[in-house]
Design goal:
By secondary structure, the protein is of the alpha/beta class. It is built from ten helices and eight strands. It starts with a strand and ends in a 6-residue tail after the last helix.
Length: 228
């Protein structure tokens, strides 16, 4: 069975928000925990929802920390966000081939729209599932399952693609194929621990992947990870 549906995480996968996210966390944490956090310390915060991250630090001040993070993040957004190399042309080519394209993210919709509009990727996606749309975010299967439903797509014909373990596990939990991206801030070796079916060295690898994946169900059962 051929792949006809591609679901993408947004931050760290399609658009390079690593600097923005890092600076937003450092700015916020410097207010509440002066001098306690470095750039390396905040890398693990990229992936969970903001509420999960800040609640783990201080449940009583989580709401105000989230608000400060978002204020700074929106203010600096257009200054610090870019697309990853090859993303625009690859997504355009996939759209022209008739594949169903969706975004599944733990970001709020207004921030998602900012990133997509800035990079001009907003024209390509049929469905966007954000934190606003679900009760349980990734790694729960709910966001992926919702995207599949909205696209009228089958799990066995889809790949969930992302830069974090939440993306891989959400896809697995929803019974799709999964792909990690080697440009993840956490590194490809980290992602490989979660056994994605594929590891993309560049976004352009997707064009070869959907052109050669003839039996998705077999790949899904074998859980192969080709190293390019």
């Amino acid at each position: 069975m051929a792949i006809n549906t591609l679901l993408f995480d947004l931050d760290g996968t399609l658009i390079d928000t690593n600097e923005l996210i890092s600076e937003s966390f450092l700015h916020t944490l410097e207010i509440y925990y002066p001098g306690q956090y470095t750039k390396e310390d905040v890398i693990p915060f990229n992936g969970p929802t903001l509420y999960e991250t800040f609640t783990s630090l201080d449940p009583d001040r989580a709401e105000e920390m989230v608000a400060e993070y978002r204020r700074f993040n929106h203010e600096k957004h257009d200054e610090l966000v870019t697309e990853f190399p090859g993303v625009f042309n690859t997504i355009k080519a996939l759209k022209e081939q008739g594949l169903k394209l969706g975004i599944v993210t733990t970001k709020m919709r207004n921030t998602v729209n900012m990133g997509l509009k800035l990079t001009k990727l907003d024209q390509f996606f049929d469905v966007i599932v954000t934190l606003d749309d679900v009760k349980k975010p990734k790694p729960d299967p709910e966001p992926v399952q919702l995207a599949l439903s909205l696209l009228d797509a089958k799990a066995e014909e889809a790949i969930m693609i992302g830069d974090n373990y939440h993306d891989i596990l959400s896809g697995k939990n929803a019974d799709t194929l999964t792909a990690g991206v080697a440009w993840s801030a956490k590194g490809s070796e980290f992602l490989l621990k979660y056994e994605p079916d594929f590891m993309l060295e560049t976004m352009n690898d997707l064009l070869k992947l959907v052109g050669t994946t003839e039996n998705a169900s077999t790949k899904q059962n074998e859980r192969e990870v080709p190293h390019k």
